[in-house]
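Hi support team,

I've been running sequence recovery on a batch of backbones for a student project. Most finish fine, but this one hangs at about 90% for roughly twenty minutes before it completes. I'm not sure whether the input is malformed or the queue is just slow. I've pasted the structure tokens below so you can try to reproduce it. Let me know if you need the job ID as well.

Thanks,
M.K.
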């Protein structure tokens, strides 16, 4: 080996160690950068020179600069994070719905129903008392207004949820476009055989954000590009992007843009938003509608058979309905009786229009109707909702609705806690592989610095050897 060969080995070593220090510096600088993966320089001995007496090494070289990443940990984190986001979105929405009812409360529907039946009971004790009839009318109006308010607030939650759903779809379309663009750049950059680490970090961060919204699976191709599938259907593959579109119907759906084929099995926040507006809110609304329908049918069915008296001497006349509804009926169908539309009947103008007496009453002192309506407090009625048909008192049915909702809220909150913990643990495991430890990087800097100094010292030795040879030639 010549002195020149020794000098060349020292130079290559200095270059390699300098690069290693530069990469360590890059790692330290990005220790808190979201999505950044720790990089490292892969060093290897150069091809040796073969002599008759054996082979001599020619120094060290850089084979590649790699990033620390585990695709299995990535997949686990993305699955857990999508589940956690879905559970938290559901818990938040159901918590909003639960807050609408505000039970137990002195001003909620339970208290209003109790006051309504109590007013009828009080009227049965004094059927000619106009003040008691006025209380009945006001109590009925309070029940109707409370149901109206609940329905209005549920509609507001639904509208807000649909806006969030639309925002998710727009964000998915933006992210898939960015991923496709980076796919193209990665394929181009890696055509020479070296990985595009920084571009891959950018893409992985975008994929993390995308799978948080829709869940799904990520498949990497041999050319370095990736494909993402949501609900088993491709939304981005290499440079091909499938734009999504939201259809604001009932239920709301998501399709490919310009297509009618509905996506199913979507996870993440978008899947939770779809479930809230397609299933959760309609279920609660249907139970409120069942209460409104039950009140209209049973109260009107009894009240309309009664008699109201006016004049002196009192003259009886058939009583009208107590409740009415404002939602228009479907074409050729029966009138809709809903929580949105229930109200006092337009014929119930004042206290004199409240019937306490039965159809056969000969005077206003009869309390047959008031007793029958007071009995609805404990008399089961048939109530039909999306959950099916059940027979229960109206108050018990509402209490079951509130209790069922509370159970759902608790379950989704527990799911959010569990899934959040799983996602956090998965992220910790992933960070243990790809995250940057500044202490480790500083140690690496010192190690490579010493190696660099040693190589530099070797250059000085070669210089001294060269000077010796020059002196010998004089």
């Amino acid at each position: 080996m010549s002195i020149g060969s020794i000098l060349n080995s020292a130079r290559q070593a200095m270059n390699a160690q300098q690069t290693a220090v530069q990469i360590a510096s890059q790692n330290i600088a990005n220790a808190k950068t979201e999505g950044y993966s720790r990089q490292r320089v892969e060093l290897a001995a150069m091809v040796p020179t073969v002599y008759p007496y054996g082979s001599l090494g020619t120094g060290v070289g850089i084979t590649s600069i790699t990033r620390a990443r585990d695709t299995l940990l990535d997949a686990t984190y993305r699955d857990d994070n999508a589940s956690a986001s879905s559970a938290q979105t559901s818990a938040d929405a159901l918590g909003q719905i639960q807050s609408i009812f505000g039970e137990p409360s002195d001003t909620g529907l339970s208290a209003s129903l109790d006051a309504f039946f109590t007013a009828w009971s009080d009227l049965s004790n004094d059927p000619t008392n106009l003040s008691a009839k006025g209380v009945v009318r006001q109590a009925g109006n309070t029940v109707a207004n409370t149901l109206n308010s609940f329905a209005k607030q549920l509609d507001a939650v639904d509208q807000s949820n649909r806006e969030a759903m639309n925002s998710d779809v727009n964000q998915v379309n933006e992210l898939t476009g960015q991923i496709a663009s980076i796919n193209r750049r990665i394929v181009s950059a890696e055509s020479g055989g070296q990985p595009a680490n920084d571009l891959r970090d950018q893409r992985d961060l975008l994929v993390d954000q995308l799978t948080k919204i829709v869940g799904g699976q990520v498949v990497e191709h041999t050319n370095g590009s990736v494909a993402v599938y949501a609900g088993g259907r491709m939304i981005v593959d290499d440079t091909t992007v499938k734009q999504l579109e939201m259809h604001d119907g009932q239920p709301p759906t998501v399709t490919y843009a310009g297509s009618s084929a509905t996506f199913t099995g979507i996870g993440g926040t978008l899947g939770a938003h779809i479930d809230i507006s397609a299933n959760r809110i309609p279920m609660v609304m249907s139970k409120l509608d069942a209460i409104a329908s039950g009140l209209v049918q049973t109260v009107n069915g009894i009240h309309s058979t009664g008699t109201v008296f006016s004049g002196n001497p009192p003259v009886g006349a058939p009583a009208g309905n107590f409740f009415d509804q404002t939602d228009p009926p479907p074409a050729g169908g029966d009138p809709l009786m809903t929580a949105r539309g229930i109200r006092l009947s337009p014929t119930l103008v004042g206290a004199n229009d409240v019937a306490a007496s039965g159809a056969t009453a000969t005077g206003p002192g009869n309390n047959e109707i008031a007793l029958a309506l007071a009995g609805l407090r404990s008399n089961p009625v048939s109530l039909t909702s999306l959950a099916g048909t059940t027979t229960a008192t109206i108050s018990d049915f509402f209490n079951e609705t509130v209790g069922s909702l509370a159970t759902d809220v608790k379950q989704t909150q527990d799911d959010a806690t569990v899934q959040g913990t799983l996602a956090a643990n998965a992220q910790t495991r992933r960070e243990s592989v790809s995250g940057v430890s500044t202490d480790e990087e500083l140690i690496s800097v010192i190690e490579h610095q010493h190696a660099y100094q040693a190589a530099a010292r070797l250059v000085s030795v070669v210089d001294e050897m060269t000077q010796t040879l020059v002196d010998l030639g004089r």
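--
Follow-up from support: It reproduced on our side and the slowdown came from queue contention, not your input. The chain is about 55% helix and 15% strand. No action needed from you.
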